[in-house]
C-alpha cells in the first residue's frame, strides 16, 4: 500500500500529477503540515515482461489489471472499455475483501472521487445550453449568498470555477471525508467562505481547486431549482441508463462495496469511503456506467450541445500562467484534468481525461471522442495515475485494432546524460537560491562541474545532484521516471519547471510538465517574532473541530506541527511569517504546486492557545489532560470540541475501556499512527501503547467514562 511521507526521489508521480487528487484533495491543515509535499509511492518490482503483451483487448486488460494488483498497491480493480456504445471489455482483478472469498463483479460500486467533477461541469454546461446561465457570468450574480472577506470574489466567473482559476483557497470545507453520509460540508460551505481570502487574482492561473466545484454545485442547485442529486439523476444518470451511479446522499449500499484498508495497517479493513461534497468528489459508480457516461462527451451526444462539448475541450490552463511543454498529462479544460493527454495528443488524437482519488479509492476516466472510445479503471488501493496508465495502454491497443493507428504511439523522451557535461551558463546560475511550493522549501545551487544540487528542507544534508545536459536543463534519471529540471520566468515569478517521463514495465507511460516550485526570498524576523515561533516549534497542535466520523482521525494525522524553519529564515511549513501570530501562503504556482493553501492564525483564549487554518481549529498540546490509572469522566465542552488526553509510557500494556453514547474514541501511538478508532473498529477493550494520545469526540456535553487498569 502507498503511504504519505517525504519523497526519497525528488518528484513522485502523484506530486507531479497531483491535479486530479481528492485524496491529496482534502489537504486539511494537518495533512499539509505533516507531508513534505510529496506522496511516497509503493515499491515497484519490474515486470518479468518489459512491455505489455499484445493479444486481444481482454487479455491485455487482464495483464494490466494484474500489474495494478500485484505490484502497485491495488486491492481490487474494475475496468471497462466502450466502443461506440458497446462495452467490448469488462473485468475485475484482485479480491473483494482480504478476509473473505466473495467474488468481485461488474456491478460493484466504487467511490470515483474527482471524476465527480465531470458531472458538475456537465450540469453547468447544460444550464448554459438552456440559457439559464453564462460561463462568463459572475458567480455572485447567480448566487447572491456567496461572499468572501476579499472584494475580488465578485470577479469570479462560472468559467473560473470549472477551469480551476477562481483563486479560491482549495479545500476549505470541513467534514468532507467521512465514514458516514453527511451534508455538513455542503450546508456550511458558503458560511465558511465569508471569512476567507482568495489565494490569487481570479483568472490569473489554474491551480487545482476542490472549492471551485463545491461552489459550482451550489450554482447548479440555485439556477436549476433542484437539489444536486435530483438534477444529475433526471438530466444525465437516468437518460444514459447508468443504473449503478449514485451520489453520497443517494441510496448507496456502502457495505456492499469492495473493501478498503488502512494505509498503515494493511490487513485492517475500514468502512466505505464517503465524500460528502458531491460536486467535487462524492459520487459512486462502476466502470461500465462510467463508459456510458462517456457517451455524454461524444460528438453525437444528446446530453450536451456541440458548442458546450467544444468549450469543455479547450485547454483553459494555457490562458493563464502555465509552463511551456512538449507533452503533458495535465491541461485543464472545463472539468477535465487534461484535454491534450499524452501520448495521444502528439499523434493528433484528442484524449480527454479525468482522475479521481479519495482517501482509499481511485479512478481513471479517459474519453477519445472522435474515435467513440471510453475507458474507465476503478480500484480500491493504488492510485488514479496508475489506473490512467492502464486506460491509456488499453485505448492505444484499441486504436490499433480499429486501424486508426498502425503502430504504437511515440513516447516523448527526455535527453540523455552527455559524455561531456557542458558548462552552466551564467544566466542559468543566477537561478540559484531558495524555492517553495505549498508545503516545502528547497534550495538550488550549482557546481563548476555542471551539477545542479537540489535540497529539500526535510533532508537538508542530502542534496540530490542533477547533471547539466545543455540549454540550462538538468537531468535526474531513474529506472522508471526520468526528470528534467529547467527554469522559466512567467507572470513576474521565477519557476522551477520539471518534466517527468514515467514508464512502468507491464503497465504504461505518462509524461507530465509542471512548475514545481517558485523562487522566494529569505524573510528576516525580529527577535520578538522569532521567539514566539520558536516556542511553538516545540509543541504540537491537536485538531478539535472535526466530526467524530471524519476520516481525518484515521487517515490524516489530526495534528499540526509548526516548526520554525532552520533551512531558511522566516518560514514555517513554507509559509512566510508576518508577525507573532500569523504566517501566510505566498507561492503562486499553477497546476498543483500551490493548491490547498491556507494562512495560519494563532490566538489565545482563556489562557489556551489555538491555531486556525484550513477551515479547522487546533489547540495546543498543553491543554491535553493526562490519562490516569483508574476511572475518570471526561465531558466535551459547549462547542463540542474534541478532547485530547496524553498516554504516559508507564501505561503500556494496560487496558482501556470507554463507556459513552459516542463512538468518537481514537487511540494513537507515540508517532500518532491510529491504532484504534471506535467508528471503524467497533467497541472493544484497548491495550494501550507505550506513550501516545487518546482523542474523544462527539456532541457538546457528551460524557466519556474511562477505565484504565
UniProtKB/TrEMBL annotation:
GO CC terms, sorted: membrane
MF term (GO), any: hydrolase activity
Signal peptide: none
Keywords: Hydrolase, Membrane
Span of domain Beta-lactamase-related: 68-384
Highest taxon in the source lineage: Bacteria
A Pfam family assignment: Beta-lactamase
UniProt-annotated location(s): Membrane
Main subcellular localisation: membrane
Matching PANTHER family: D-ALANYL-D-ALANINE-CARBOXYPEPTIDASE/ENDOPEPTIDASE AMPH, PENICILLIN-BINDING PROTEIN 4
Protein name: Serine hydrolase
Organism listed in the record: Holdemania massiliensis
